[in-house]
């Protein structure tokens, strides 16, 4: 019985179209995905929480400058590229162009600097890791992170 139900769920989930004229995933994007979670997160403000449940939820809502690939290595996401100075005190993030917010406004370095400096001020994790650091705008699509002292675990060399 359980195997029959699993087979039905798998076959329905894998079908390309419906008899009511649906299109395949190759033709359209969008829609909704509803997920049940077993906890109530204390907040969805990524800068104010250390809750692992909230962080897992937020990974599905927010995009970041850097993310992890399948091998747990840091790779650019909203950043196009990242350069690290030889002394390890300056990180330069070249942003991907054409990224828009939900309201259609394009993301620029000014948006990133405001968000990331708020993170440095509010997050206990950021305060611990990047004490004395500051994000600055270099140009419309370039952000720099300047550190007071070199920190070995800011970003692994795989993203540079």
Automatic annotation (TrEMBL):
<protein>
    <recommendedName>
        <fullName>Solute-binding protein family 5 domain-containing protein</fullName>
    </recommendedName>
</protein>
<keyword id="KW-0813">Transport</keyword>
<dbReference type="InterPro" id="IPR039424">
    <property type="entry name" value="SBP_5"/>
</dbReference>
<comment type="similarity">
    <text>Belongs to the bacterial solute-binding protein 5 family.</text>
</comment>
<dbReference type="GO" id="GO:1904680">
    <property type="term" value="F:peptide transmembrane transporter activity"/>
</dbReference>
<dbReference type="GO" id="GO:0015833">
    <property type="term" value="P:peptide transport"/>
</dbReference>
<feature type="domain" description="Solute-binding protein family 5">
    <location>
        <begin position="74"/>
        <end position="155"/>
    </location>
</feature>
<dbReference type="InterPro" id="IPR000914">
    <property type="entry name" value="SBP_5_dom"/>
</dbReference>
<keyword id="KW-0732">Signal</keyword>
<dbReference type="Pfam" id="PF00496">
    <property type="entry name" value="SBP_bac_5"/>
</dbReference>
